[in-house]
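Researcher: Let's continue the batch. This sequence belongs to FxsA family protein, and it's 156 residues. Same format as the previous ones, please.
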Amino acid sequence: MKIFTAFLLWPLAEIALFVLIGGEIGLWATLIWVVLSGVLGVSVLRMSALPMRETMQGLRAPAEGATRGLFMGMAGVLLILPGFLTDAIGLLLLLPPVQALFAQHVLSRLKVYTPPQPGAWPYGEAQPGGSSDIIDAEYTEVPPKDQKPSGWTRID
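Model: Same format as before. Here are the structure tokens for FxsA family protein:
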């Protein structure tokens, strides 16, 4: 419910900021701001792949490269969207201390999954019963005796 409320209030906040700030700085300055923030957003979005490339080359730690690239991509998308609130949040996400704060929060909530070794029980412990043999079998599907076909499956 909180997310739904946020989605309803976000456009209202953007409109209110457009009216307030646009009234202060004027129409042309507002339009120039929207266009320049969009151009900046596109360039930041294009540069968001750079941390991942540096990670692949071994120049950056994997978690750092992934989170930095993620936050740069989010900042780029927010800068492309027209609005003063989205621009402010996008610009904040470009700051390294803010990225580090969010990255610490995100990484603390992640759970690392390591795939099981071939032949191992997939739930992390020894398989109950001990054997991991594959049983080959044949089966025959037996329909229930008192089941009537529905009108949807009847062919006339």
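Researcher: Any comment?
Model: Residues 2-109 form one domain.
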